[in-house]
Amino acid sequence: MAIVVRGGTVVTAEGEQRADVLVVDEKVAAVGPDVDAPAGARVIDASGAYVIPGGIDPHTHMELPFMG
Predict the structure, then answer these.
(1) CATH code for the domain defined by 2-51
(2) What is the domain partition of the chain in residue ranges?
(3) Cα-based angle 11, 8, 52 (whole degrees, multiple of 5)
(4) Are the C-beta atoms of 49 and 9 separated by less than 8 Å?
(5) Burial 44-67 (b: 16+ CB within 10 A, else e)
(6) What are the pLDDT tens digits along the chain (68 aa)?
(7) How far is C-alpha 9 from the chain's CA centre?
(8) How distant, in Å, are the alpha carbons of 33, 58, 66 from that of 62?
(9) pTM of the model
């Protein structure tokens, strides 16, 4: 399945730009302006939002006792 995230502010290690992100089979396949959407792709409008391709949120709550 392909997903295209359109028109967001894409943040990468190189900086930020208004761009599209193409995800194919759960992997980032392309980042850039006006990425072509494959036939049948789900399109998400990200206007006004930040998009961080490959970003991982390491914040977790493990329900472990704190300090002891």
Answers:
(1) 2.30.40.10
(2) 2-51
(3) 30
(4) yes
(5) bebeeeebebeeeeeeeeeeeeee
(6) 999 999 999 998 889 999 999 999 999 999 999 999 999 999 999 999 999 998 877 777 777 776 65
(7) 10
(8) 39, 12, 10
(9) 0.79
